Amino acid sequence: MSSMGISRNRKGPDKIPRHRGLFLSLFLLIILVLMVNFYFAFVMNSDSNKLLSQTEPSKIFYAQSKVFSSTIRNVILLDSPVKENYNSVGNIIRNASSDFSFKIETLVKKISFKYSKLSPFLHNEISKLWTYLQPSVGTSTQLWSVAKEWVGARNIVPAQAPLLGSVLKTMSFAKIVKAQNAPGGTQLKLLITFEGGQQALFKPQWYKRDEVIEGPVYSGKDRHNAEVAAFHLALLLGLRRVPITAARKINLHTEIMPVASKSLLKTFTVDGKNNTCFYGTCHYCSRSDAVCGNKVWLEGAVILMLPSNFKLKHFRSPWQRTYKENKAAKWEIESNYCESVKSNKIYNPQSGPRLLDLIDAAIFDFLIDNGDRHHYEVRGNVSGAAVLFIDNGKSFGHPFQDHLDILAPLYQCCVLRKTTWERLLLFAGGTLGAALEKLLTTSSITPVLTSFHLTAVNRRLRAIYATAEFCFQKYGIAHVLTDDGYR
Ligand SMILES: Nc1ncnc2c1ncn2[C@@H]1O[C@H](COP(=O)(O)OP(=O)(O)OP(=O)(O)O)[C@@H](O)[C@H]1O
Ligand SMILES: [Mn+2]
Questions:
Q1: Would you say 306 is a known binding-site residue?
Q2: How would residue 480 be classed by pLDDT, with cut points 50, 70 and 90?
């Protein structure tokens, strides 16, 4: 037996090496293909942290997303004539949004490779912003005038802002000399005055970080962490139109009650667990729905008020929702809705930056999942003033849902500011979530967002790329990307 075996082996050298060589090459080829596959799967799907080496690597979660399930699908084409349709259970079909979600689903898959390459400029940009967010000088009320001088017609924070971290730190620690109910709006918030006279809104914490807000996109109360996250995301996107927002833990007994107005103080209570609470006065405020601290400590977002000479002009958004399940807005059913928007002089692209500003806002809102921008504000009496992103409280409510209809201004008008698009490309390859995570490590209430929300931001950016691709394919890239001289 053994001799047979040996003889077989001995015969081998003539024949077997050829087979072996063939097998070996085949094996190596398979390994190579697998490695390439793994590499691309990793680059395209992961929140790449390689460029963000100064932060802790973010945990990657691939949560099952209900991306396109929140809108009702149907088969009517986007260009169909205007008519209200009802589905079999009598709900209104919102054609303009549901048709689009159907198209975009396929596009997201098709374009993933095209937008998978990491930008060589990313690391520098993030490092710069991260440095700005570090307090470089001590807290000082003199910084109020610095922040005041920053405010321009197009930006609330300038591109170069090395004192930003110091301003934020001062907002988190400066002495509060007065606390009142904040006027305006429907949500409970305080108007606080710091030493030095600077005012800010204080939006309190209602939810734990991992609470998922179910229901329509505008459901729930304001999320204080969403305001903080939105401010940082706007810095990353170069859309510095969000009022400066810091996190703060307030001692209600020592910092608010002694300086509270009489009417506010009247609404303070203590709950069964000895936590201090207050309910204030606002549209949705009631004694039975007070906000409570952890004993005396209440976390919240401090939003710096714009300078008082900065008069705000208030506009209804053309893409406002009806806030009624059984009533659709015009934009939800009219396929050529953008044309009617542009027929209004202020939205005509030839007459100013407003339409492109609203499209910037739509992109920003889609990323943060804010479907509640019913009104918007711009600085009055200044030409070319930017649409400000005031009130981001209803964002980051549901990390597993994306409301594609927030992007309606983009897919209905198919125009996009070139500088905005270039900035979005900075985060190709799934890096936006990790970049945001890094900036948010500078906040005093980390973690500001759960990793599910950070993953959602990457997923939503892919949908934005796909939406832009839809427009490029329909009208040509040169028609879509616009340089209107504003940014
Ligand atoms: N940082 C700021 N600087 C100046 N004005 C501000 C600022 N933040 C908010 N405001 C003003 O206060 C109003 C109410 O604020 P905000 O929208 O945050 O409250 P809200 O209760 O969520 O409102 P709504 O119920 O309308 O959504 C804004 O429309 C704006 O006019
Ligand atoms: Mn609001």
A1: yes
A2: very high
Q: Which residue puts its alpha carbon closest to atom 17 of ligand 1? A: 391
Q: Examine the pLDDT at 1 and tell me if it is beyond 50.
A: no
Which of 390, 392, 395 has most ligand 1 atoms within 8 Å of CB, for mutation?
390
Domain range holding 115?
A: 93-121+310-482
| Res. 14: pLDDT tops 60 | no
Average pLDDT over residues 391-412: 97
Q: Do residues 440 and 379 both lie within one domain?
A: yes
Has residue 57 been placed in a domain? Answer: no
Which of 279, 304, 329 lies at the terminal end of a domain, its last residue? 304
Same domain, 461 and 430: yes
Which residue of 155, 387, 391, 392 sits with most ligand 1 atoms within 8 Å of its CB, as the best mutation to test the pocket?
A: 391
- Same structural domain for residues 264 and 368? no
Which residue, 276, 304, 332, sits at the end of a domain? 304
Confidence class for position 18, pLDDT limits 50, 70, 90: low
pLDDT per residue as tens digits for the range 344-353: 999 998 999 9
Q: What is the pLDDT of residue 209?
A: 98
Global pTM reads 0.84
**Within-domain flag for 111:** yes
Report which bound ligand comes closest to the CA of 185. Answer: 1
Question: Token digits for 107?
Answer: 């596009």
Mean of pLDDT over the chain = 86
Q: Tell me how far apart the alpha carbons of residues 265 and 254 are, in angstroms, rounded to a whole number.
A: 13
Residue 290 tokens, joined: 């007070």
Q: Does 324 share its domain with 413?
A: yes
Pocket of ligand 1 (CB under 6 A): 184-187, 201, 222, 243, 303-306, 312, 377, 390-391, 393
Task: Specify whether the CB–CB gap between 447 and 228 falls below 8 A.
Answer: no
Burial, 93: exposed, middle or buried (Cβ in 10 Å; 0-12, 13-18, 19+)?
buried
Ligand closest to 189 (CA) is 1
CA angle 454, 320, 228 (to 5 degrees): 30
pLDDT of residue 94: 82
ipTM field: 0.99
Is 415 contained in some domain? yes
Residue 397 lies in a domain: yes
Structural domains in the chain (count): 2
Residue with CA nearest ligand 1 atom 1:
305
Question: Quick check: is 372 catalytic?
Answer: yes
Residues 392 and 416 in one domain: yes
Residues with CB under 5 Å of ion ligand 2 are: 391, 393
DSSP H helices in 195-347: 224-237, 262-265, 330-333, 337-342
